[in-house]
Amino acid sequence: MGLINEHLVFPDQQFADNEAALRFLAGKLNAAGKVHDDFFDAVWAREQKFPTGLPAGKINVAIPHADAKYVKESAIAVATLAQPIPFHNMAVTDQEIPVSLIMMLAIHEPHGQVQVLQNVMALFQDEQHLAQLLQEHDAHALFTDLDKTLGAISLDR
Q1: What sequence ranges are listed for the domain PTS EIIA type-2 (predicted)?
Q2: Contact 19, 27 (CB under 8 A)
């Protein structure tokens, strides 16, 4: 099985703020047995020091994550947002940007994050594909698209 799991893909979500969004995704990863109980705390602490908002043209994304020691089994949890929420820009940390897609990385292999980030970044550079993902309202269809794009990545074998 790859990193994308249909039960960890959530289209059209609404959150009051980025903390609520990160808590939701981390909770889903925890409920799926992919991460340890302190994963959210580690993600949130990291987000405060090293923001994960990424300008990607017209659609901004966020790629929150934590160290491998908080992860039991590699996975990616994905949420598209009905309304963008602010995240701090990873390049200009005092600047907030409106994020419409969140990919929370839970990578068990300490050196696997580089491979995953390369694949995710390639997706984020395709503005047309990002727009297509945001238009998808069905979880299965969103999963199918992401699985075609990122499903070949597997680190826990």
Answers
A1: 2-149
A2: no
For residue 35, being part of any structural domain is answered with yes
Q: Per the domain annotation, does 155 fall within a domain? A: no
Using DSSP, state whether 142 is helix, strand or coil.
helix
With CA atoms as reference, report the closest residue to 52 among 86, 17, 10.
Answer: 86
CB atoms within 10 A of CB 28: 21
Domain with 100 in it:
4-150
156 falls within a domain? no
Q: How far apart are CA 75 and CA 58, in angstroms?
A: 27
The domain that holds 106 is classified in CATH as: 3.40.930.10
Q: How many domains does the chain have?
A: 1
- The answer to pTM > 0.90 is yes
Residue 40 belongs to some domain of the structure: yes
Per-residue pLDDT in tens (0 to 9) along the chain, 157 residues: 578 899 999 999 999 999 999 999 999 999 999 999 999 999 999 999 999 999 988 999 999 999 999 999 999 999 999 999 999 999 999 999 999 999 999 998 877 777 787 788 888 888 999 999 999 999 999 999 998 888 666 554 4
